[in-house]
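PT: before anyone asks, these are the final sequences, not the draft ones from last week. 522 residues across everything. Please model them as a single complex and drop the result in this thread when it's through.
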Amino acid sequence: MDQSDKPTERESEPELPNKSALPISLVTIKAACSQCSLHELCLSEGLSKEELSKLDNLVGSRRKLKRQQSLYRVGDPFEALYAIRTGFFKTDILLEDGRDQVTGFQMAGEILGMDGIGTEAHSCNAVALEDSEVCIIPFSQLEQLSREIQTLQHNFHKVMSRELVRDQGLMMLLGTMRAEERLAAFLLNMSQRFTTRGYSAAEFHLRMTREEIGSYLGLKLETVSRAFSRFQEEGLIAVQQKHIRIIDGDGLKRLLNHQPR
Amino acid sequence: MDQSDKPTERESEPELPNKSALPISLVTIKAACSQCSLHELCLSEGLSKEELSKLDNLVGSRRKLKRQQSLYRVGDPFEALYAIRTGFFKTDILLEDGRDQVTGFQMAGEILGMDGIGTEAHSCNAVALEDSEVCIIPFSQLEQLSREIQTLQHNFHKVMSRELVRDQGLMMLLGTMRAEERLAAFLLNMSQRFTTRGYSAAEFHLRMTREEIGSYLGLKLETVSRAFSRFQEEGLIAVQQKHIRIIDGDGLKRLLNHQPR
DNA sequence: ATATCGTATTGACATGGATCAAAGCGACAA
DNA sequence: TTGTCGCTTTGATCCATGTCAATACGATAT
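LR: through. Structure below.
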């Protein structure tokens, strides 16, 4: 029932048969692309079978990461984008003065690495928060293929644009919301993204610490913890460490839409 | 001497001769593209003359805006990107509950509208803060041309990626910096961008109100005003309403790199 | 000149969240 | 079972910024 709590187990799912050992069939291609690219987040939406097959060639190589391992770090040369197949990541920035901030949490079906395109080097760190697997998309090949395939080109542009809009939303959160509003927005966002991926909207397991949540939301960990406690007292959620159950989602939404003042 | 104070006068510069009345010459093309796309921000960097000419065809149409006029609004159907030729813009978001936030200030050579690609509709408002002129870049044509011209494609991807990185920086600012640090970062950023455009690094005229600065930085206008005053007392800058002179730029930088605590 | 309006400055006070500190809890190893 | 370690919760205080209010400034119109 509570499948949302178990995605880590997907790690141990049997590997797909080694592609190179088999004739490439539409079945394995579909499997490969439907895994890493659920829903509309994906680069492959709307592609013909033939086009999908080209994309799949490009995306052939994968990489597994253990919890706490970095996918890339600030300054690493930019070579590829990464589509998350399974697992959970954070991106963060660390300034010389010790200041750091989590700039995002990413889950299956989302694309990492676009920060590196502009300067040929990554501008943030991407760290796995649980054992994870990504598909490696060499960027120059993606550009080449998207010169051939209009739909792919447009999909990629949409992905980048949505990322811009997501960032705008986060700025709004950081610039105008109070602690409880921020946390409510965060929980609703998580819930919505888990739902999109077929997990429970009401019950899930957070992969990040209070400190990481706080960093993302521009709050201290104690403030996050207190807000969790208050939500629990008010019957909005049930918290037990990293396990969250949303009891009154509408109540959380009301927190958001309420007058700032 | 203080040219930084006068960019508005560029508004009244004589229009280029009507292109359709003349054979397209490399001169007018160069003039058109070198105007709107100073430096590396531009989509046209590294293009051959022939390629530039194709881009210029695409970018033919322009639009003038008076101060306070909207270039586009939330929900407007997305059709084109806009390259700022002259003038100064802000983008902002307004929530139902009255909350609003400035998400960016844009000046000549920068590109507006990328927020609309992902959903086919704009997700923010773009408003001219002084009389301005933009080049209209119909997006489907840009995609088409960037399927032909690899360099153009890559330039566009770089522009979007840099926007992502800019947003990361702003998140860092909103999430971890204190009021004076935020304002120092803002002033240094403005100074740097004016410099890039050939204006004075030390002296410039802000086009936005204290309230707009505050909204952008996640502060109230009074806090912005007080920080300006304190900088002045400390001999870092000279403020007179919207006119700013940076006296001790290194002092401002020191404010930034200092331990957060 | 004088009045008006939007914007900016400054002061006095209130408060949300940070900071500091101490327990509590759960997982894992010895 | 006991100890350790990382994470979380909770309490007591502090302080940066928000809030409210008064005044000043500068541009424009009368």
